[in-house]
Design goal:
globular; six-stranded mixed beta sheet; disordered N terminus; alpha/beta; about 240 residues; Aminopeptidase; single chain
Length: about 240
Amino acid sequence: MKTTLSAGLLCLAAAALLAQQAAPPGAGPTPVVQQALSVVVLDAAHGGTDAGARGESGIVEKDVTLALARVVQAQLERRGFQVVLTRQADESPTFDERAAIANGQRGAVFVSLHIASTGAAGTAMAFYMPAAPTSETKPGPEASGRPLARWQEAQQPYAAPSRKLAELLQVQLGQKLRGSREVPQAVAVRQLRTVAAPAVAVELASVAVADRKPLDQAAPALAEAVARAVAAFKAAYEAGAN
């Protein structure tokens, strides 16, 4: 049943993606059409057989990210956003299944939540996909019509707004979680590559702590940082200032 549902979800999302990004052969990424943002897709990284990072004290990333997603969800809903979770329990949706959830929404942003292996406890970092070089964003005629090629490049038209969202988020993280860096990092995060929406990842440090208490204590501050950043991004994005 899961395989059938997943395949159907991927087909619908792929069809929506092709409709959004239809372009003549040789064209670069299709410009993003501004939409009202009302949905936040929260991705609790890892899950199921994929435990993610593990600390010597027994802390497992997949457990912390799911708990963190619930805290972030509550903060976003207080601000009027509709929140969709990519997993509700100890499940293991694939990268593309997670992306399909986001790509099936209208007016959404995607936030993937992670816990670092190391780093100063209680600090956090935002990440966004770097824009591909111009030559890489212009597939030839043989690639332009292939759904797989379009799917793998889904994030590229959103590179600029994703960077803006990451910048706004990192400012908030720096204010809410002392010791966090001032600027986000451009990293080819796999979870973001196939998302056809503004998308970022945020990583809280770390599983290396002696117990989960510091992570649980940091969760409300991180949640508020995400909510503030998304609200600020919504205002700028809808005004066309991305």
